[in-house]
Amino acid sequence: MFSLILPFFLGILVPEVAPAKHVTFKKQMIAMESAESAGVFDVNNDGHLDIVSGSYWYQGPDFKKKHFIAVFNRVGEYFDDFSTIPMDVNGDGYMDYITGGWFGATLVWMENPGNNGPWKTHEIYKTGNVETTRAWDVDGDGNLEIVPNTPNQPLAYYKLKRDSSGKGTGAFERIEVAPKHGHGLGFGDVNGDGRGDFILSNGWLEAPSDRRSGPWLLREDFNLGAASIPVLVQDVNGDGLNDLIVGQPHDYGLDWYEQRKADGRITFVKHPIDPFHSQYHCLEWVDIDNDGQMELVTGKRYRAHNGNDPGGHDHLGMYYFKWNGESFTKNVISFGPFGEGKGAGIYFAIADLNNSGFQDIVVAGKDGLAVFYNEGY
Fold first, then answer.
1. Does 11 have pLDDT greater than 90?
2. In terms of Cα–Cα distance, which of 227, 221, 193 is closest to 207?
3. Which N-terminal stretch is annotated as signal sequence (predicted)?
4. SS3 187
5. Each residue of 150-168: pLDDT tens digit?
6. Which residues contact 241 (CB under 8 A, 6 or more apart)?
7. Is the peptide bond between 230 and the residue preceding it cis, with omega within 30 degrees of 0?
8. Is pLDDT of 6 > 70?
9. Rounded percentage of the chain residues whose pLDDT exceeds 90
């Protein structure tokens, strides 16, 4: 005779599994400009964070009043302005910023006039086509260096020259790292020696002890193809080894590459995060839900290559991906067709704009400039 024994017959209480909590966001459209980059810093030293994007800066705390910066060349659908990296370049106490362009093929810094007048453009170097630019402390001195991604050109970083008090002098020193690199760039300590290495599309450049003049050795342990900027270097699974997080900027795919080490040899195993959306060009790693753990924040770029990339006409989206111990869980910040969903540009910023204790997201693109206010749980 067959009998059915269920937990409640035995008085066993089966605990309910609490639904996963996720933070919510409220979108505010700031402008319908089509710049690809947005940064956040206090432009006028009034104690409020401002938004800088394209030809304008938007005054905090409500970002309703905009001020002119400069005219950037427009080529087709693009404004030739592909990063917004805050840095007081000339040491005058007002924050300037670094940008560069694909079509102008030049790295520049924009001088904050300290008033509402136009900003002056200063050339740093004729680098060749600038896909976008990032800032990392390459030489470990506590200051950020500027690193443009210039496909098919030499990889170099640009170090701000400072005076004896540590203030910027308005000039940069160029240090070349490799004779050529491709689409995709990251920075972080791959081998655990305490020095940051460069991630290229075809491998990683191992940092020498002398990062100004020593040779950077290419370790061809992977091939990422055309890769995001940045490629994130983070210990995803908590095993003590730094892994890679890579978006496909002009195709479908978002993956992480698990680092494994055996007998002193480093290898990487590819794991999918999201194969269903395309044009993951810019990635950020931040504690977006205030749980003490970092999350991946990214989104689909709108009309990269003027809509001719795979998935170019798919719905737009911004997401954060949370590591659950085995894989990444996708959380939607925004999703939908043009005008409803919001995509990521080529460079976006994350900051607590309203002192709520939660990090907000400022994102530009050909679909406009928006703030996603993080409203917590």
1. no
2. 193
3. none
4. strand
5. 999 999 999 999 999 999 9
6. 192, 235, 259, 260, 261
7. yes
8. no
9. 92
CA nearest to 248, candidates 272, 220, 223, 225: 225
Residue in this structure with the two tokens 């007998």, named with its chain if needed: 263
Facing residues of 131 across strands? none
What residues are paired with 286 via a beta bridge?
A: 295
CA distances for 243 relative to 143, 177, 321, 335, angstroms? 24, 22, 16, 28
First to last CA, the chain: 52
Query: Rounded CA gap, 263 and 212, in Å?
Result: 30
Which residues, 6+ apart, have CB-to-CB distance to 40 below 8 Å? 49, 50, 51, 52, 86, 349, 351, 353, 362
What SS3 state is found at 306? Answer: helix
Joined together, the tokens standing for residue 339 give: 């005008």
116 Cβ neighbours under 8 A, 6+ residues apart: 67, 68
SS3 303: coil
Average pLDDT, stretch 272-281? 97
pTM > 0.70? yes
Going by C-alpha positions, the residue among 293, 169, 190, 182 that lies closest to residue 232 is 190
DSSP per-residue string spanning 98-134: EEE-TTT--EEEEEP-SSSSPPEEEEEE--S--SEEE
Torsions phi, psi for 305 (to 5 deg):
55, 35
Q: What are phi and psi of 146, to 5 degrees?
A: -100, 130
What are the angstrom distances between the C-alpha of 64 and each of 40, 50, 136?
15, 10, 32
